[in-house]
């Protein structure tokens, strides 16, 4: 048996945390031969509920779950952690403006960035799920100057998986037969789900669907899927978000299949004309525990405008928290 790895989950008593912890503990993220120590972080008032999660995790008797730490202290939760899934965030309260929400979360992610910087494993992989995910990831990264900035990522994988599901339904194939789909930019309604390079059973997706379906149905449905789930369920996406977080980390660690790519929010490096300075959804391939942005894709005017619009929103978000980065 391999030696255990330390996986931190913040907001572990919340909706997504509850779905996530059990799947990670049962080996679905890092493998059935990889024991994990779960480090669960919550705010003090949620520690009682977190104890309940801990009791249930123990009651599962998972062969891959080695140890659980449950705490309200980020420095205990992040101590020597190899992966940190930052899910806990402040929800929008009554009368709260978007700007206030951004700032409230910026405080949380600057504190957590500093704690990671101080105590996490030097190669810790960080996935931010809590919204606004891209900007929260940037804040954590900027507050952790001693860690590899490339290791701070944000989740756009749920949007990616939603895009696969929509296209699979439209073309009547299983989603496993779809390759090379991209979510560019922000995990928000400005994200750009791009099918220009997508293949369905090896055929260009855009040769199988009408342009009007792509532009007027597919793109808005993917962009607004979170709101549709809230309307239907009365609560925001949780199990699908947890599943996407597992996909993100698993592929980052274990690699992406040959001939395909996934979407990850990663620090922009100038690729596709997006200047450095934001965490941006890109098509990436993963190998040997690292990711690379897919290069050389053609972008037509339709795509260019959408890449720039979502970048503009990220710059506005960044400006709103500039004192904390
Ligand atoms: P919940 O409100 O159910 O859970 C959040 C948990 O975080 C709560 O238990 C809370 O006590 C805890 N928390 C708050 N501040 C904390 C802190 N400073 N340290 C540790 N824990 C803290 O929300 P849930 O539905 O689980 O969603 C969590 C976050 O994911 C939200 O910000 C949500 O907007 C975001 N989402 C992001 C998605 C993405 O694709 N990137 C999709 C799903 C989801 O909407």
TrEMBL record:
**Enzyme Commission no:** 1.1.1.37
Q: Which UniProt keywords apply?
A: NAD, Oxidoreductase, Tricarboxylic acid cycle
Class of this enzyme? oxidoreductase
Regions annotated as coiled coil: none
- Give the residues annotated as active site: 187 (proton acceptor)
**Record's catalysed reaction(s):** (S)-malate + NAD(+) = oxaloacetate + NADH + H(+)
Question: Where does the chain bind substrate?
Answer: 92, 98, 131, 162
Q: What GO biological process terms does the UniProt entry carry, in alphabetical order?
A: malate metabolic process; tricarboxylic acid cycle
Residue ranges constituting the Lactate/malate dehydrogenase C-terminal domain according to the UniProt record: 157-321
Question: Residues in domain Lactate/malate dehydrogenase N-terminal?
Answer: 6-152
Show the GO MF annotations. Answer: L-malate dehydrogenase (NAD+) activity
Kindly list the positions annotated as binding NAD(+): 11-17, 105, 112, 129-131
Q: Which InterPro entries match?
A: L-lactate/malate_DH (IPR001557), Lactate/malate_DH_C (IPR022383), Lactate/malate_DH_N (IPR001236), Lactate_DH/Glyco_Ohase_4_C (IPR015955), Malate_DH_type2 (IPR010945), NAD(P)-bd_dom_sf (IPR036291)
Protein task = Catalyzes the reversible oxidation of malate to oxaloacetate.
Q: Belongs to which family?
A: Belongs to the LDH/MDH superfamily. MDH type 2 family.
In terms of HAMAP family, this protein maps to: Malate_dehydrog_2
The name this protein goes by in its record? Malate dehydrogenase
Q: Which organism is it from?
A: Steroidobacter denitrificans
In the UniProt record, the gene name given for this protein reads mdh
């Amino acid at each position: 048996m391999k030696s255990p790895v330390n996986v931190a989950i913040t907001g572990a008593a919340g909706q997504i945390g509850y779905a996530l912890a059990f799947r990670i503990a049962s080996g679905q993220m890092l493998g059935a031969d990889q024991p994990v120590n779960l480090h669960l972080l919550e705010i003090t008032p949620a520690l009682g509920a977190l104890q309940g999660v801990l009791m249930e995790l123990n009651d599962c008797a998972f062969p891959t779950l080695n140890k659980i730490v449950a705490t309200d202290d980020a420095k205990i939760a992040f101590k020597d952690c190899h992966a940190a899934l930052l899910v806990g965030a402040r929800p929008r309260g009554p009368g709260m403006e978007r700007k206030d929400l951004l700032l409230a979360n910026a405080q949380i992610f600057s504190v957590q960035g500093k704690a990671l910087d101080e105590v996490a494993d030097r190669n810790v992989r960080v996935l931010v799920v809590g919204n606004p995910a891209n900007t929260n990831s940037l804040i954590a990264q900027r507050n952790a100057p001693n860690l590899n900035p490339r290791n701070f990522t944000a989740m756009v994988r749920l949007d990616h998986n939603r895009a696969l599901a929509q296209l699979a339904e439209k073309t009547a194939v299983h989603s496993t037969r779809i390759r090379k789909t991209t979510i560019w930019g922000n995990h928000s309604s400005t994200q750009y789900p791009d099918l220009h390079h997508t293949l369905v059973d090896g055929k260009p997706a855009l040769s199988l669907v009408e342009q009007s379906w792509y532009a007027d149905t597919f793109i808005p449905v993917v962009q607004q899927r979170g709101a549709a789930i809230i309307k239907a369920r009365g609560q925001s996406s949780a199990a699908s978000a947890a599943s996407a977080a597992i996909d993100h980390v698993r592929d980052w660690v274990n690699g992406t299949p040959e001939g395909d790519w996934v979407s990850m929010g990663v620090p922009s490096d100038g690729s596709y004309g997006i200047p450095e300075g934001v965490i941006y959804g890109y098509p990436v391939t993963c190998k040997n525990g690292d990711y690379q942005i897919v290069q050389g894709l053609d972008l037509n005017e339709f795509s260019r405008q959408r890449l720039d619009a979502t970048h503009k929103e990220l710059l506005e978000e960044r400006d709103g928290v500039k004192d904390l980065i």
